[in-house]
Amino acid sequence: MADTALVTLVTRDSARLEFACPAGMDVLSAAETAGFYLPAMCHAGECGQCHAHAQSGAYEMAPHSKAALPDPGQGGILLCRCQPRGDLTIDLPYEDAKIARQPLITRSAIIESLTPAGEGALALTLTLTPDAQLGGAADFIPGQYMELTVPGTEIRRAYSLANLPNWDGRLDFLIRLVPGGAFSTWLGTRARVGEELSLRGPLGHFTLDDASPRPRVLVGGGCGAAPLVAMLRHLADYQDSLPTHLIFAANREAELLPPALFEELRAGLPQLEITLCVWHPSPGWDGFTGTAAEALAAHLAAQTEMPDIYLCGPPKMLDTARAAALAQGVPAERIFAERLAV
């Protein structure tokens, strides 16, 4: 095996990016070293956001979640886990425009509050530390995410923002705690108000198509609440009048978001319809019983105009919800998705 491999990335619009990947380094890290910042979230082989396909060449995959990589036998790889064993050519599932060429901005922020947000989840609020060049404002597009680093470590995880851009430097996150997860363990047991941490971003292209005249359906579950909440707050801020439907799913009622949040969203968007669905409800549950995909299929079956679909959540939820939308006749190009770690 050579000490350095030549990696060639081919985008969906046929752009070719070449860079060296030293032995033992993953493709995602080597790309960043070369100045190419590819879409990615967890950097730990859990979310599937950096999924791509090996066109030719040998490689090894470091440990990763099976749910994040549904097609390993067909050349499917995760860039954050893929280590070349020689020259390697990889097909990327997005255009060249999705690849940033500027280093990601690193900022520091202070924990302002940590509060429960349903069973096994926390609402985290940070305030950016004012920067001499960047100022103190929180500038991002609703739907984007930030990479947060556990203080004193190199462990970083990506979490979507739940609030709107603001001059106060406020960043709100809705984070589902993963048992045994490095960031979750720190956040749930050791993080304290007033503590400082570093973050990078904003990142991501999971944002609303504001120019679309079609109705919208936003579907989320588990860890996929935050970007959808940000999108709905954005629509309320602009007094959008298009029909909008939110489907939010959980395994049990206790895992749903706090009722006050749904009340806030309804107050801001009078036309907003909300379907809360629980897969395994307790007796007396009067909402939708079933999965997010089943709720989406039922909603679409009653529509005369196919809407734009925005999906955010664990890989299995995304795959089943996408299949349900396609089966009902929603064009693939009108389905937007953000795949998150389980």
**Integer average pLDDT:** 91
What's the count of strands?
A: 19
- Shape descriptor reads globular
Structural class: alpha/beta
SSE run: EEHEEEEEEEEEEHEEHEHEEHEHE
Helix content: 10-25%
What gap, in angstroms, lies between the N and C termini?
A: 34 Å
CATH level 1 class label of the largest domain: Alpha Beta
Number of helices: 6
3D structure, described in words:
- With 342 residues, the chain is an alpha/beta fold.
- The protein folds into three domains: 4-98, Ubiquitin-like (UB roll) (Roll); 106-203, Beta Barrel (Elongation Factor Tu (Ef-tu), domain 3), CATH 2.40.30; 216-339, Nucleotide-binding domain of ferredoxin-NADP reductase (FNR) module (Rossmann fold).
- The chain is built from six helices and 19 strands.
- The protein has helices spanning 27-33, 182-189, 225-237, 259-268, 292-301, 315-327; strands at residues 4-10, 16-22, 51-56, 59-61, 76-78, 82-84, 88-91, 106-116, 121-128, 145-149, 156-160, 170-176, 196-203, 216-221, 244-250, 272-278, 288-289, 308-313, 335-339.
- The strands form four sheets. A six-stranded antiparallel beta sheet has the order 11-10-13-8-9-12.
- α5 (292-301) packs parallel to α6 (315-327).
- The longest helix has 13 residues, at 225-237.
- The protein is globular, with a radius of gyration of 20 Å.
- The two termini are 34 Å apart.
- The mean pLDDT is 91.
